[in-house]
Backbone:
């Protein structure tokens, strides 16, 4: 079994276990390595993280399929964990989505997530929109059906993201879309909401109970008080802490820069930063030198 097959098999196996599968967002290879070191189950590569941290661009479909895939491949190479890649709305039309599936699958990524926001998308966390539009339900189902037919392996995992509750379309629309997407072949469903009490999601879950045996996915950024175990007890199999490491990196870097600017010397931040030797160790510098010198 090659590495890609092993990762896909692990993800599907984990999603059948009697405990939550927890993924954490990585915006670069080092973060992915640290996620694995800290005992999580999978790595999430978010469109927000890649857009902002790699390219310094807003999350508005400004990065291309090739740019997003390149970031995901670098991250995938740094970890033995399954990588789940956020592919926004498939980077364009139905044909773009079909190509997205083929390229990510052939590159060894374990899973992708595709939302039903129209192109150009708006990030679910952004509150500046008075009106959001979604791809019509039947059209998105047709897109998913075509994408699944394009797969070359059976284990590549396709998560359909339902944005009805974010867009204000209501629970009925979320249910109808979820049912259509599963019928079209989606392997998992991500249902998102801004309701911090989870009342909307609980309403959806009550209606959805027993409808289809596909894993449900939660991204609790907007309802952060709920633990992975609590979400699992509600029916979610995969919980994604999507952007906390990215936000931590921005916060910590800003703090260090402010101190450096104020104090004017490197020693002022020594207690706040990781020693260089630890960085060398994380990327196995000694092992690489020993291999080069023939001492191993």
Residues:
């Amino acid at each position: 079994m090659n590495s890609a097959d092993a990762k896909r098999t692990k993800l599907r196996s984990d999603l059948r276990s009697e405990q939550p599968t927890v993924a954490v967002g990585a915006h670069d290879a080092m973060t992915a390595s640290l996620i694995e070191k800290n005992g999580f189950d999978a790595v999430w590569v978010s469109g927000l993280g890649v857009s902002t941290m790699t390219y310094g661009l807003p999350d508005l479909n400004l990065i291309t399929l090739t740019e997003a895939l390149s970031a995901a491949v670098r991250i995938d190479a740094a970890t033995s964990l399954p990588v789940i890649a956020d592919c926004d709305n498939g980077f364009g039309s139905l044909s773009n989505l079909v190509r997205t599936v083929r390229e990510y699958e052939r590159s060894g990524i374990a899973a992708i997530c595709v939302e039903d926001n129209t192109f150009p998308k708006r990030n679910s966390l952004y509150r500046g929109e008075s009106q959001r539009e979604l791809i019509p339900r039947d059209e998105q189902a047709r897109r998913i059906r075509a994408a699944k037919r394009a797969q070359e392996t059976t284990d590549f995992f396709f998560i359909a993201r339902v944005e009805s509750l974010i867009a204000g379309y209501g629970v009925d629309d979320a249910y109808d879309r979820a049912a259509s997407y599963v019928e079209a072949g989606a392997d998992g469903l991500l249902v998102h909401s801004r309701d911090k009490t989870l009342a909307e999601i609980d309403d959806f879950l009550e209606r959805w109970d027993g409808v289809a045996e596909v894993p449900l996915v939660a991204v609790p950024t907007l309802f952060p008080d709920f633990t992975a175990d609590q979400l699992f007890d509600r029916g979610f199999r995969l919980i994604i802490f999507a952007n906390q490491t990215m936000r931590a990196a921005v916060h910590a870097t800003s703090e260090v820069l402010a101190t450096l600017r104020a104090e004017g010397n490197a020693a002022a931040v020594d207690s706040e930063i990781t020693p260089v030797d630890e960085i060398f160790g994380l990327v196995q510098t000694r092992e690489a030198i020993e291999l080069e010198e023939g001492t191993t």
About this structure: The longest helix spans residues 244-263. The chain has two domains: 3-243, 250-293. The domain at 3-243 is CATH 3.20.20.60 (TIM Barrel).
